[in-house]
Amino acid sequence: MRMFFPICEGRCYEFLASSMARVFVYGTLKKGQPNYYRMFDTSNGKTEFLGTAKTVKKFPLVIAGIYNVPYLLNIPGQGNQIHGEIYKVDEKMLEFLDDFEGVPTHYQRTLNTLEVKEWVSGADGETLEPGSITEAYLYSTKTYKPEWTKLPTHENYDSYGDHGLKYVEREARD
């Protein structure tokens, strides 16, 4: 059965319900970050780590708001190439991530081109060499405050980094 995901921004890509989609995470969902556990909570769906990569295009990655949330501003060509991780996720996990990221109003899910840094052979045996080009969905926003474009940009987000802007987890918010 073929399904379409109309919530994606720009071109929508056909997704086979029985297949897995690639998702690029660059913020609190990465290994060692506050929301990483959500990627492997089986009640959210199925996830498989594939490797690390960086965006081919530059984007501004800023830390903003009272909760110090990392936002990837959808302004291609500005900022830095963004470093993150590629996961293969099933439809249930993709739906969870869309909900978690507030698609389509808070974030928009778009297909972007990535350069592989390191690849861990997936369960299907697929391998990609460092420097290879691949695609994955990522979550970025076009709905940001104008002053966010003046914030410092980052290429590799770490909630515990020397920027001093530790992410406030959802459970700890008022």
UniProtKB/TrEMBL annotation:
EC number per UniProt: 4.3.2.8
The molecular function terms in GO held by this entry are: gamma-glutamylaminecyclotransferase activity
Q: Residues in the active site?
A: E101
Q: Which domain of life is it from?
A: Eukaryota
Q: Name one GO biological process term.
A: modified amino acid catabolic process
Q: What class of enzyme is it?
A: lyase
- Which PANTHER family does the annotation name? GAMMA-GLUTAMYLAMINECYCLOTRANSFERASE (PTHR12510:SF4), TROPONIN C-AKIN-1 PROTEIN (PTHR12510)
The job of this chain, per UniProt, is described as:
May contribute to degradation of proteins cross-linked by transglutaminases by degrading the cross-link between a lysine and a glutamic acid residue. Catalyzes the formation of 5-oxo-L-proline from L-gamma-glutamyl-L-epsilon-lysine.
Descriptive protein name? Gamma-glutamylaminecyclotransferase
